[in-house]
Amino acid sequence: MLCRVTLYVTLLVFLPGDIYSSEAENRSASDICSTHTILPGPQGDIGENGDTGETGKQGKEGPKGLTGDKGIIGNVGDHGLIGKIGPIGSKGDKGYTGRPGLPGEKGKPGTFCDCGKYRKAFGQVDVKVSQLKSSLQFVKNVIAGIRETEEKFFYIIKEECSYREALTKCRKRGGTLAMPKDQRTNSLIADYISSLGLLRVFIGINDIDKEKQFMYVDNTPVQNYSSWKVGEPNDGSGYEDCVEMLSSGAWNDVDCHLTIYFVCEFNKKIK
Ligand code: GN1
Ligand code: CA
Ligand code: CA
Question: Does the pTM of the predicted model rise above 0.90?
Answer without folding.
Answer: no
